[in-house]
Write a structure and sequence with these properties.
By secondary structure, this protein is α+β, with helices and mostly antiparallel strands. Helix content is 41%, strand content 23%. The chain is built from 16 helices and 29 strands. The strands form eight sheets. It has a six-stranded antiparallel β-sheet. A five-stranded antiparallel β-sheet has the order 5-6-7-8-9. A four-stranded antiparallel β-sheet has the order 1-2-3-4. Helix 4 packs across helix 5. The radius of gyration is 40 Å and the shape is flat.
Length: 675
């Protein structure tokens, strides 16, 4: 993948500084070993994801990457240290391929993003000491390890924004180099080195390979003019972000370049947007290749196992055939074998050693003795190796001829018994292989590559907790202290109903009655909603008491000497209780002023949609749960994982498999099953 140039980083840094200064740092993620994503909240804009890839790129992105279920240590440390911090500045270090992101929380922290070579991402404290690097590295003059002082890489080249004509011309003092290499090695890279030369050619002809020692004063002046012409575009902020393409060649640049005059160009409002489109497409391909490689490893594992099992089975069949043949050969040559065995036994009775017996038999074979022609060898234990009609047979003289033959028949029987187990194992492996291939095909079809996140225009109630009751009433609740305040101050009308779980840490809930009378069904559903969006969920409760009152009973005025935290209220007068409200929710897509995701009581989802998932307090992390939910309810590709995660209750969840099992049974035999 193309690495960003110094010019790219200069442009990106300026845009990021303007966009993210004052932004609040949210969560951090590490989707791959060399990519870190930091999420920011920008006032008036909302969520902004910043993608940083070691040695390659840094830009905002609308393409959310899939994150591991268990976060690695580096993003976890970022969450611990800088979540909630505010961005002070983002700048490029000395026109080098290094970006400094300075944030302030309890102290100042700096995130260093190195985009040269294989790169790195490093968190520094306020004294410029390394808290943790993404990758530990060591050179003779730099040690990127925890608790070490961070040392910037040695400066190379000049800063084109501040460089004087004298500094520029001084680059060519090395007489052993040539023009294009001198420019490329001093911070401009090959692309901008050639661009400077092309622009200089408007004034005087210059061969890019001209040695520095042969450059004329006129050429040197022309090179400086080409240099100024190019980089004045950066200082004048006349940036034109674009992706250029010609046949198979493609690039992303911040300026109109002479080199790309005959290329097809697509312009973008910001360089961040152009880089996002350029790099994210390539990342999609990389992700698919990585996942396909991982699946291929799983498939290869079973293919190798099957191959070994097949070879083992073939060996069993070979053993059966050869052993039976050898047993038959022994009986077919009974007398001949018996004669040679007798010779060995007689010699042993006269105290001949096996070595001496072997010499005697070898000499007899050489002399043409008929019985000795089948002799091959005898080992130190007296076991004979005979060759009969090109079949090698082992004979133990201490055993009878039938016993020797039976040894081979028994070997064949054992191999035959083993073939049954081998055949079963092969069939099991074939099934496993077909299963893993099927899973691979499905996974590759539904591979989770980044899809562009489009900012949705949410209805007012979608910014809160909400659901539509089974009889069509809208119920809204707070997501945090700020929105709890809004529920009471902005959305609770005089004829509505206010609910709150009878536990510390819960949403303020408002039933929008619109002039209707309250009823038991509406209270029951709203009570379950209030109970579920409280700390009862994260504590694993199955039920929780909820109280309800009229709006005039809810006040922000505390008793004398007391203080109310943001989002808290005082309830005056009698409280009506909904005892043991069920802590359970359902999630699905409903058609309410257009199709949208809704989380609410089971009865409400049953009334408004066919396809939904029932949730209960559990142990599954939200990201893993969201993947399961999206596969079950995502009609017309309407939702993203973030959409689902956003509406889930605080705390871990599980899918209520028992509910869905019973629902399935009711469909099969509705007469014999009750809720």
């Amino acid at each position: 993948m193309k690495s960003m140039s110094n010019v790219d980083i200069f442009t990106i840094s300026n845009e990021l500084n303007n966009l993210l200064s004052g932004a609040r740092v949210d969560k951090s993620f590490q989707p791959t070993k060399d990519i870190v994503v930091i999420r920011f909240h920008v006032p008036g804009t909302g969520r902004i994801d910043l993608v940083m890839q070691c040695g390659s790129r840094i830009h905002t992105s609308q393409y959310p990457l899939e994150n591991p279920i268990t976060p690695p240590s580096f993003p976890m440390l970022l969450r611990k240290r800088i979540k909630g911090a505010h961005v002070e500045s983002i700048k490029q270090h000395n026109f080098d391929r290094v970006v400094e992101i300075k944030v302030k929380k309890d102290q100042y922290y700096t995130i260093i993003v190195e985009l040269f070579d294989k790169g790195n991402i490093i968190l520094l404290d306020d004294e410029n000491n390394i808290i943790l690097p993404l990758k530990r590295k060591h050179w003779s003059n730099r040690d990127i390890s925890s608790k070490r002082e961070y040392i910037f890489p040695e400066d190379r080249g000049i800063n084109p924004i501040t460089a004087t004509e004298e500094e520029f011309k001084g680059l060519f003092s090395d007489g052993e180099s040539d023009i294009v290499r001198t420019l490329a090695m001093n911070g401009f890279g090959s692309l901008y080195a050639e661009e400077i030369i092309k622009r200089a050619n408007d004034f005087i002809e210059i061969d890019k390979n001209t040695p520095n020692s042969e450059i004329s004063d006129e050429q040197l002046t022309a090179l400086h003019k080409g240099f100024e012409d190019l980089f004045n575009n950066l200082t004048a902020e006349s940036v034109k972000p674009q992706i250029v393409k010609k046949e198979s060649k493609e690039d992303v640049v911040a300026l109109d370049l002479v080199k790309y005059d005959d290329y097809e160009k697509t312009y973008y409002e910001t360089f961040n947007e152009a880089c996002d489109e350029f790099y994210s497409k390539k990342v999609n391909t990389d992700i698919k290749n990585v996942k396909e490689t991982a699946w291929n490893k799983k498939v290869n594992k079973f293919e190798k196992r099957l191959q070994l099992q097949q070879e083992t089975l073939d060996n069993f069949y070979t053993t059966i055939e050869e052993s039976q043949h050898k047993g038959e050969t022994i009986y077919s040559n009974y007398t001949t074998i018996e004669n040679i065995v007798n010779v060995v036994n007689q010699a042993r009775s006269k105290d001949y050693s096996f070595k001496e017996i072997g010499k005697i038999l070898k000499k007899a074979k050489k002399d043409g003795m008929a019985e000795a022609q089948i002799y091959e060898s005898i080992d130190k234990l007296g076991v004979l190796t005979l060759n009969i009609n090109e079949t090698s047979i082992i004979i133990d003289p201490k055993l009878t001829i039938p016993e020797n033959a039976e040894n081979y028949y028994e070997k064949a029987k054992k191999a035959k018994r083993k073939t049954k187990g081998a055949l079963i194992a092969i069939e099991n492996t074939k099934k496993q292989l077909e299963d893993i291939k099927s899973k691979k095909d499905i996974a590759m079809e539904n591979i989770s590559v980044p899809k562009k996140r489009v900012k949705k225009n949410l209805k007012w109630y979608e910014k809160l907790r909400w659901f539509l009751s089974s009889d069509g009433h809208l119920i809204v609740g707070g997501r945090d202290a700020n929105s709890n305040e809004s529920i009471v101050k902005k959305y609770l009308d005089p004829k509505d109903i206010y609910l709150h779980a009878d536990i510390h840490g819960a949403s303020s809930i408002a039933i929008k009655l619109n002039g209707d009378e309250i009823n038991d069904t509406l209270l029951k559903e709203s009570g379950e909603f209030a109970a579920s969006f409280s700390s009862a969920w994260s504590m694993g409760f199955t039920s929780q008491d909820v109280f309800w009152v009229h709006p005039e009973q809810v006040t922000k005025t505390p008793e004398s000497g007391e203080f109310l935290a943001k989002g808290s209220f005082v309830i005056r007068g009698h409280r009506n209780y909904i005892r043991g409200a069920r802590v359970k929710l359902a999630i699905g897509i409903v058609d309410y002023e257009g199709k949208r995701i809704m989380v609410g009581p089971i009865e409400a989802l049953e009334a408004h949609c066919e396809n939904f998932v029932v949730l209960k307090p559990g142990f599954m992390k939200k990201e893993a749960l969201a993947k399961k939910i999206i596969n079950k309810i995502n009609e017309d590709d309407l939702l993203t994982l973030d959409d689902i995660i956003r509406v889930l209750p605080s705390g871990k969840c599980d899918i209520d498999e028992e509910y869905h099992h019973q629902k399935k049974l009711r469909k099969i035999n509705p007469d014999n099953l009750q809720d």
